[in-house]
Amino acid sequence: MVDKNAAAAWELHFNNQLLINCDVEWQDPMFPTLDYGQVIAEEYTRLLKDWEDFYLHGLYTADQQYSTGIGVMAWTDEWDWRPQAFESANALVKPKAKVMVDSLDLVVLRDELDPNEMHRILNNEEIAAEEGWIVRDLKAALLRNYKSGSVTNDGEYQDSEWESYQKQVRDNEADACISTEFKGIRVFHILVREMPTEEDPDGKVTHLILPEDDGLKKFLFKSERRFNEMKNAICFFYYNPSKGRHHSIKGLGHRIFPHCTLSNRLIGHIFDGGIVATGLLLQEKSGSDASKLQLTRMAGYTLLPKDVNLQQTTFQPQFQHLIGLRAMSKEILNNNTGVFRPHSETLFDRQEQKTATQVRAEEAHEARFDKIETSISYVHWDRFHREIFRRLTRREYIESEGDYPGKVQAVKFIERCRKRGVPDELLFDSELVRIRSTRSIGDGSPTMRLNALNMLMGQRPSMDEIGRRNTEREWGAALVGYENVDRFFPVKSRDAIPTIQHSMAEGENIDMVQGNKRTVAIDDVHPTHLKIHVHPLMQTLQMLQEAPMQIDFERSFQFYMLVRPHIDSHLAFLRADPSRENIVKEYDQLMKQIDEGFKIIQKQAEQIARQRQQQQQEAQQAVQNAQDFDKLRDFVLKKYEVDLNHAAQMMREQSMSAVRREKTDVAIESQTRKTQADIENERRKTEADIALKRRKGGE
């Protein structure tokens, strides 16, 4: 039963795609669709799953939690993010200690130090002393532990016991490995809260290490105010808070022990009674020795000795008892192991087959937590994951030059988050990130989980794209596991899910195809826009290889000339963000390839443009020629018309000239005649006057 609950705890906390949910209270306005919390949760899960001991410590803690009521994980230094599981009996607190970790002012953990690890620490005594180790007393403890396995030191190695000890460890001597000379040093880790001071108003936690050996009552390690709070050093996993006191908590083992004991006793009696019911009842005769009684059994009968009397009139063994006991044994096996038997194996009175609804109802109760147990369990694991994340994201831990334990894995975690765009403001500011253990579907029951997912699969038509994909992946993982779910339902990027940004980018493409320039806004989701703007360019290059005759080279090149600076503007915004360096490099390389491909398209477009221009010029020349011919024809016709008009005018003028000339001649002739008449009259008058004068003179 304890094992089944531990398995349910595994299903509840470990068998999830992500171990944590990360809620981020900060969003980059330039990349509103980027879920930084999802990225952090994925990389955190990868980190813990890559650490193989995580599952072992988790399962051991779950077993302790349900068997004894208390599971314990602790961190024995202030740097390493990897916890260590402790047996519940090795975690000691005050008699009236409360279950709230922050209220504890004294915790003692029993542990065993590895001498080889202690020897590595002592290789540099100055650093060991700076860390808090008391070198002299640690050496004394190692030597005392060494001498407890060998009675005398024959001086085989060096002059001093410490040098002899070092020589054995370095040479990996067989005696040192198989004897008790180098067994672990049993110690107490003492965590005590200091009194508040002006420099430390909250009272930090001091860490002390004291050996269990009564012969060496000296501290081996002392680091004052090493931890800020008690929860930074230890995490308790309670089965049930009970009355709020640490020592009042009882586990599942305590609850089921009396019932299991009673059940075992009853089952023993039932089996004994069943075996007796199937045997022969014999009565010995007087004077016979029962210890020498022998029965001879052959194929179909049993031969009785002559010194016993058979008490049964008929021999009918009661197989029903054994069959019933066998069925009971199988049911007990089913209850203890969680194995479900869909068909009855009873010989008599075969049971009626169960319906699918009955089977699902019974399976739903197999190893399933109640709501309160689930909620309590999540509280502990939330605190556990928050402490690990706090240790992973300590800036002084990541950026230090010291060789701290677990630092290599922690640095890789930070680098992976940075490469995926998570800014340092989130990684190193715990106030902006909220860590919670993933809430599992089904409350730890695989059957309940599958039933719930089957119901969700039927509701997919009412979900958005993200909800449908998440439902399909969870349903697939319940069937084949998260390791294989990508083969059937691969992760779909949120950038591929249509949003208003996709619509805006597609509208920009249409405008630029039509020759209209578009402006890049600072609040554009630049990766989404880049993907949509680059897509038609890639399609054009693909058509260039497969079906070049279908390409409109001039229109494609016109779109390229508009979208290329548009893409550069998007990349300029991304270059301002150092976390987008990988995206910028990727698109820079891609655009170089696109530029090379569009050089071919440019040549084709220019050639087509030249051909079209030549054709236009020829057409214009033809039109010009036609226009010139029309003009010549109009000119000839006009000239002919003018000539006709001129000829008619000349004729009119000539006619009028003749008339005028005739009139002039008549007038001249008339005038001449008149003049001649006047001259004649004047002559006659003159002659008359002369004659008159002569007459008068003669007189």
Written description of the protein model:
The protein is α+β, with helices and mostly antiparallel strands and 699 residues long. Among the domains are: 458-497, no CATH class; 500-698, no CATH class. The chain contains 21 helices and 14 strands. A 5-stranded antiparallel sheet has the order 4-5-6-7-8. A 3-stranded antiparallel sheet has the order 3-2-9. α19 runs antiparallel to α20, α19 crosses α21 and α20 packs across α21. The termini are far apart.
The coarse overall form would be: elongated
Round the Cα radius of gyration to an integer and report it.
Answer: 55 Å
- Spatial strand arrangement across the major sheet: 4-5-6-7-8
Q: What is the average of the pLDDT values?
A: 78
pLDDT < 50 stretches: 149-158, 337-342
N- to C-terminal separation? 201 Å
By DSSP, the count of extended strands is 14
Q: Which structural category fits the helices and strands? A: alpha+beta
Helix percent reads 55-70%
Number of helices: 21
Percent of residues in β-strands: 5-15%
Describe the largest sheet. Answer: 5 strands, antiparallel
User: How is the quaternary structure best described?
Assistant: single chain
